[in-house]
Design goal:
Blueprint: H1 5-9, H2 14-19, H3 30-51, H4 58-86, H5 92-118, H6 123-141, H7 151-154, H8 160-169
Helix pairs in contact: 3-4, 3-6, 4-5, 5-6
Length: 171
């Protein structure tokens, strides 16, 4: 239950992901840069989690699982924003369905696929393969189109109170 906590609280950092333009990576676009960053962090954290012995280091394993969930929930934020900005209103239903198909395929790979692979190799290798699958998705991200920026999203502010008002309170 604790591991899933980041999904329940992702609304706390979603305004930052929604409004903040990343340095350096931001040149590829706001949505794609955040998506690439989250995928790289997710792949790294999945790989690290696979290298921890859960019997010897239960707390480190739990912490790694929470970190994986944090980056996964953050990726969710970006994917939803990307889909909403990229698609026309009449395409949103199909887009939501497509993201669910992607989610289900990922869960199938991480669940049944990982369990089946573990019959033939160590869990460390299984987690490394899952991290590679995430990196393959990250490579695909490089070729995605960046959604058109809305006028409301172009406005930047250095005033924290105004940022809080427009990014958190008004929505």
């Amino acid at each position: 239950t604790v591991v899933q906590t980041p999904y329940a609280y992702k609304f706390l950092w979603s305004p930052i992901v929604d409004r903040l333009r990343l340095p350096i990576l931001g040149r590829m676009g706001r949505r794609r840069s955040w998506l690439l960053l989250m995928q790289l962090c997710l792949a790294a954290s999945v790989f690290v989690m696979g290298q921890i012995d859960p019997v010897a280091h239960a707390w480190w394993t739990a912490l790694a699982a929470i970190v994986v969930a944090f980056f996964s929930a953050s990726q969710d934020i970006v994917i939803d924003a990307y889909r909403i900005e990229l698609l026309d209103p009449d395409e949103q239903g199909a887009g939501a369905g497509s993201t669910q198909v992607g989610y289900r395929l990922g869960m199938l790979l991480a669940g049944a696929g990982a369990t089946a692979m573990s019959d033939y190799t160590s869990w460390g290798v299984v987690y490394a393969v899952m991290a590679l699958a995430i990196l393959a998705c990250a490579a695909f991200t490089l070729f995605l189109p960046e959604p058109k920026v809305r006028e409301s999203a172009r406005k930047t502010t250095t005033d924290y109170a105004e940022f809080l008002q427009t990014a958190v309170i008004e929505p």
